[in-house]
């Protein structure tokens, strides 16, 4: 099978780079549709619009409705047509960026993503996760092209609440765990094709950077500082994880995350990365990783305050029916869990989800972990 590598055309990251948006985006077009939700318009959207207008780029301001659904993408596409935009700019979290990708792709326009949090690896990829209006994952849309430009202003990102950065770290820590499984199984990347050495190396680097710098970056973020550690972790969450998952492949962690999105209840209050965090530890349990490897992950996740017990993910009182529902979705035909180097049944998933909780409780006891340590 042929190897495939995907990446954005240009990635620019730094403190206050938004001020240079006119110069970078001006190379792509002069009529921009800027998509951001109400909150993000206030914290960054209006500034961005002023910056673009000063560079003679006309701006059509659009408020994102909040869900990346087919209907929402079609609505924004119509607005873009009316405004005769030639470049689409998504500004905000993963859902806003995914919706902007859908619009740019439907109209064949240039695309810029400007994440205002480092909460996911959505900014660089050529895929959108499409949700039902009720918030369950419906499908993935794959595009022929990644974003033309990814602009990451680390000052904006460090001003966001730390929960976003931590969620992005969790999404990025899944990257190597999953890419390694795909490598072992000779599986395929999400858009089809075999992974490249480059894709795998980038995924592995994400893990290294995150184990080395996550805790320092989190402290910088809590104090709204842009340190080198913060820059490193933002790059790991965004660029390394983005290329790493797309060109390295997904396996069990994201499939289990998809199972979590399909059930009702408070689990919906968790972010994408938080659900992926539990899925990642569950994948390590499925893989029967030895004690030191499992403990290395659990120790970091606990220090970052990520959810690693059933109580943390609001499934403490879940019934077996709930667990099997999650597992059925996670093991559905076509799910990335089939990239694992061995066959995984829905019962294996249920045992590993419960096994994660059981083992983490043991870890906490052995390490004298108290909840206030978070
Ligand atoms: N396409 C991909 O490759 C890919 C990869 C990973 C995740 N995703 C998708 O990303 C989505 C999750 O993204 P998310 O976790 O960013 O959530 P989100 O997009 O739902 O955004 C969450 C909230 O963050 C707020 N926000 C944005 N910037 C902020 C800031 N600076 N300060 C404070 N609040 C801010 C927004 O107003 C929004 O209410 C999911 O839909 C997931 O499927 C896609
Ligand atoms: Zn993810």
From TrEMBL:
Domain Alcohol dehydrogenase iron-type/glycerol dehydrogenase GldA: 8-154
Protein's recorded name: Alcohol dehydrogenase iron-type/glycerol dehydrogenase GldA domain-containing protein
Listed InterPro entries: ADH_Fe/GldA, ADH_Fe_CS, Glycerol_DH
Residues in the signal sequence: none
Family: Belongs to the iron-containing alcohol dehydrogenase family.
GO cellular component terms given for this protein: cytosol
Phylogenetic lineage: Eukaryota, Metazoa, Spiralia, Gnathifera, Rotifera
Stretches of the chain forming a coiled coil according to its record: none
Pfam families for the chain: Fe-ADH
GO molecular function term, any single one: oxidoreductase activity, acting on CH-OH group of donors
Keywords: Metal-binding, NAD, Oxidoreductase
């Amino acid at each position: 099978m042929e190897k495939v590598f995907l990446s954005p055309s240009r990635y620019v990251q730094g403190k206050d780079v938004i001020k240079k948006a006119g110069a970078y985006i001006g190379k792509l077009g002069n009529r921009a549709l800027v998509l951001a939700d109400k909150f993000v318009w206030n914290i960054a959207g209006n500034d961005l619009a002023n910056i673009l207008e000063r560079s003679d780029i006309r701006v059509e301001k659009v408020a994102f409705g909040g869900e990346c659904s087919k209907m929402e993408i079609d609505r924004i596409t119509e607005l873009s047509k009316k405004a005769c935009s030639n470049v689409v700019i998504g500004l905000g979290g993963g859902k806003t960026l995914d919706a902007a990708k859908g619009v740019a792709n439907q109209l064949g326009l240039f695309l810029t993503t400007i994440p205002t949090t480092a909460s996911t690896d959505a900014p660089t990829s050529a895929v959108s996760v499409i949700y039902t209006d009720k918030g369950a994952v419906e499908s993935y849309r794959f595009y022929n092209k990644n974003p033309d430009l990814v602009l990451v202003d680390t000052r904006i990102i460090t001003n966001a609440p730390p929960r976003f950065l931590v969620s992005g770290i969790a999404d990025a820590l899944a990257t190597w765990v999953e890419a390694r499984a795909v490598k072992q199984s000779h599986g395929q990347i999400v858009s089809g094709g075999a992974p490249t050495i480059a894709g795998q190396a980038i995924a592995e680097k994400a893990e290294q950077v995150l184990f080395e710098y996550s805790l320092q970056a989190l402290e910088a973020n809590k104090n709204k500082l842009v340190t080198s550690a913060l820059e490193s972790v933002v790059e790991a969450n965004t660029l390394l994880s983005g290329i790493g998952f797309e060109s390295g492949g997904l396996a069990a962690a994201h499939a289990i995350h998809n199972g979590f999105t399909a059930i009702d209840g408070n689990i919906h209050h968790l972010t994408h990365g938080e659900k992926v965090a539990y899925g990642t530890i569950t994948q390590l349990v499925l893989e029967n990783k030895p004690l030191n490897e499992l403990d290395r992950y659990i120790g970091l996740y606990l220090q970052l305050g990520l959810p690693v017990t059933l109580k943390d993910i609001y499934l403490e009182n879940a019934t077996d029916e709930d667990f099997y529902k999650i597992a059925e979705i996670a093991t559905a035909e076509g799910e990335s869990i089939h990239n694992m180097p061995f066959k995984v049944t829905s019962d294996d998933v249920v045992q590993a989800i419960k096994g994660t909780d059981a083992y983490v409780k043991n870890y906490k006891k052995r390490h004298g972990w108290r909840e206030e340590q978070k």
